[in-house]
Amino acid sequence: MLTHNNLMAKQKLVTLEKTQQKKLKDSPPPPAFLYARENYIILGAGLVLLALGFLLMTGGHQPPTQFDPNIVYGFTTITLSTIVVLLGFAVVLLSIFWKRKIF
Rounded to 5 degrees, what are φ and ψ at 31? Predict the structure, then answer.
């Protein structure tokens, strides 16, 4: 036997369930990652190039008491390492602006 209080409580429960379902339907989807997987792969390649360029700048191993200008001012430490570092920065910048082409 339903009393007036039980009926009112049941109606409130039904309306509460409906509003919760409506909120679930109207809520936006959870935010996705800022960049796509391709962007992170390109970013990783750029970081590897940067690390390689900075390793090339070190010039290799030589004793601390001996100075060899061919190693310090050689092609690898001055020219090649600079090109690799600049290329690494360009690839990192490219990874930021890379967009997936949608056809």
Answer: -65, 140
Amino acid letter, residue 99? K
Q: How far is CA 43 from the centre of its chain?
A: 7
3 state SS of 31 = coil
Residue 93, H or E segment: helix 81-97
For residue range 26-80, list pLDDT tens digits in order.
Answer: 667 777 778 888 999 999 999 999 999 999 998 777 788 888 888 888 898 999 9
Alpha-carbon distance 52 to 85, whole Å? Answer: 8
Give the whole-angstrom CA distance, residue 78 versus residue 83. 9
Residue-wise burial string across 49-80, b where 16 or more C-beta atoms lie within 10 A, e elsewhere: bbeebeebeebeeeeeeeeeeeeeeeeebeee
Maximum separation of any 2 CA atoms in the chain, in Å: 101
